[in-house]
Amino acid sequence: MIPPLHEDLDFNAPLSSAHADRLLDRLAPLTTVVDLGCGWGELLLRAAARGATVHGVDQDAEAIAHARAQAASRGLSATFEVGDAAQWTGTADVLIASGSTHIWPGTAAALTATHRLLKPGARLLIGEGFWRQEPTEAQLAAMPMQRDEYTSLAALVDLAHTTGYRLLHLSEATQDEWDDFQCRHALGWERWLHANPHHPEAPTIRTRADAHRHGWLHGWRGVLGMAYLVLQRQDD
């Protein structure tokens, strides 16, 4: 059995612990925090450790089970539910949608949907990809992304402002964060292949690992960025 991602990653995103702590600082005060598409909820658990009331939603039952186990092992009060995050209908003082805008049909739809869920003046952390530079045709051919799937960083911030937000903080994943994320993302595959070189599933897993490495090194490395925007809801 191939280990799940959470055995080798802290966050399912190019994000270091120091960077995560800085984002939580910028989101303060942390009162009621909801993470839509939370995965195994590491960022949410760190908010809970700061005294926030937290709730996470994700369709991945295994990830949610891990999040609940982590909360229990750390003695943290946190609730998690298995469900469609796009259908969540509550309200929050702080909302997180990091690496999960695919839940809605595009970034603009995600910003509109989350705006409705925030209390007046509340804050949103959105983690979203952007093109650090325009990809070549060869780079696009190597990666599973499409050219129109992302835009520039400036256009992303402009979109947030036209959707009813003001930018409070902007940061992006460093190259070290990206490289560490990609290596740790593939570590379970490599560890399994080393231990099971003649397993009937080994060719399939090797092909998957090779495709991931090729897409990263020949496609999106240095081309695709990850922006973390702390936004405040504006009201008429």
Automatic annotation (TrEMBL):
First-level EC class: transferase
Domain annotation Methyltransferase: ranges: 33-121
UniProt keyword terms in alphabetical order: Methyltransferase, S-adenosyl-L-methionine, Transferase
InterPro entries, alphabetized: Methyltransf_25, SAM-dependent_MTases_sf
A Gene Ontology biological process term: methylation
MF (Gene Ontology): methyltransferase activity
Enzyme Commission number, as recorded: 2.1.1.-
CDD domains in the cross-refs: AdoMet_MTases
Organism superkingdom: Bacteria
Pfam families: Methyltransf_25 (PF13649)
UniProt-recorded name of the protein: Class I SAM-dependent methyltransferase
Species in which this protein is naturally found: Actinokineospora soli
